[in-house]
Amino acid sequence: MQDIVLGGHRIGAGQPPFIIAEMSGNHGQSLERALAIVDAAADAGCQGLKIQTSTPDMLTLDSREPDFVVRGANQDWEGQSLYELYTTNFTPFEWHAAIFARAQERGMVGFSSPFGIEAIEFLESVGCPAYKIASFENNWPELIRRAAQTGKPIIISTGMADLADLERMVAIVRAEGNEQLVLLKCTSTYPAEPHNTNLRTIPHLRELFNCQVGLSDHTLGTGVGVAATVLGATVIEKHLTLDRADGGPDASFSLEPAEMARLVQECRQAQQALGSVFYGPTQAEQKSLAFRRSIYVVQDVAEGEILTADNVRVIRPGNGLPPHVLPQVIGRPARHSVRRGTALNWDMV
To answer: What is the CATH number of domain 4-54+90-274?
Structure first.
């Protein structure tokens, strides 16, 4: 399975997980706030900053017919028409270059989720280095195909997709000769509940499709992202806002900057902790061996005196014979006199 290099950052096994801060509509239609979110993501240690490229008309109709009104998805969206929701959520096209430039200045790679073919054409014009296909678009072959044709890394969220859907989208990307594919396990509820997240799917996805696999996470907190890292996720995407109290369409399931920093730190620690299959003392544990138990002489013993439970004991430190040989020691004579507090060795028995 090949690693992917995105904006100078390597994505793959053995690397720290690539953490993406999703801005979505948390900019509140303010470019100043959008740039502040970029800075917050960089300060938190994220490697990627993602926005969304759409217009309301690209996504839906301006209608309040029942099919076009949100019911039961998220309390902040309840009762809005889809058109109204996407009007507050979209990122103006004229902001993209400034957002991407700020991300690059801060050492991150900025990229986007396109929500139409025309969005990809625009993003190509501003040098977008990768494309993220959102869960709600992952059943649209033409969008996936056009993104794959750019030859750039393609990240696809798998929310709601069954195996047939997954096989279709992966085949579309690879038919274009594009092997730079990341699948993100995703639960498309907002927020998502941990018990609906099914993280065991991550290694199964990797085995099925032989590609990098990560998590697009809408749960609250950082625990699910850390658990995904342990299961081999090489990419973690999480929504970021400056302050949930400010509200907005995605605020309720977004992390604040301090939480994002904790996610980055804990995911990196989790990846480091995986290590390899290893038994015995590590190099770092060598000095701690002295604090294990071993067999010591606890009373002065004369030459020829029988060793007993009274004059030898298993105590700390660990410089004497190992405890498991105590039955072989008890009842044998001392080869020579031994002082109290001496670590026992076979030359003394």
So the answer is: 3.20.20.70
